[in-house]
Amino acid sequence: MICAMMLPTTLPVLRIFRGMVAGRSAEGQLYGFVIGGYLSAWLGFGLAAYALDWMLHAAARETTWFVANGWVVGAAIIAAAGMFQFSSLKYRCLDKCRTPYGFVVERWQGRSAVRESWRIGFDHGLFCVGCCWALMLLMFVVGMGSLGWMLALGAVMAVEKNLRGGQRLSVPLGVALLAWAGAIVASHLWGPLL
Predict the structure, then answer these.
(1) How many domains does the chain have?
(2) C-alpha distances in angstroms, 119 versus 24, 34, 42, 191?
(3) 38 found inside a domain
């Protein structure tokens, strides 16, 4: 899921890095370390997300409240993703992702090529997690195996990070997610009355 959704958002960094190491004897190996570092950062996030999911399922087995009110967890995740669209952390991380040339240049001296390559990938992965973690959690709500949602969320993240006007997407997306969460709550609290 991470590869399918996040690869388009990291292509600019990979393209710039490949240009910087072109002609080196270990070019392919260094490129592999960038990718490995990037995947390591996302693997850490993935393990934390699955641990949280496992704890929620364990809690659901212990009480019938979760079975009857699972929508609350879904609405909370959607609302959290919506609120995160307005956070300064999101924008700080997006700034790093939107300047791939500067990002690579400030981390690459070429002296310790393997370490620097891995670090470029890992740091970029951390910033990528920093701006996209809340949207990735939506996959737990809409269904982990949903290829359509993976493509849609991956496209939103790629536009937000890679296109010139991508920053204009963050606020409307946040509003839409908050409205979606509100609609879920309203339909469960007041739906039977309507």
Answers:
(1) 1
(2) 18, 7, 14, 51
(3) no
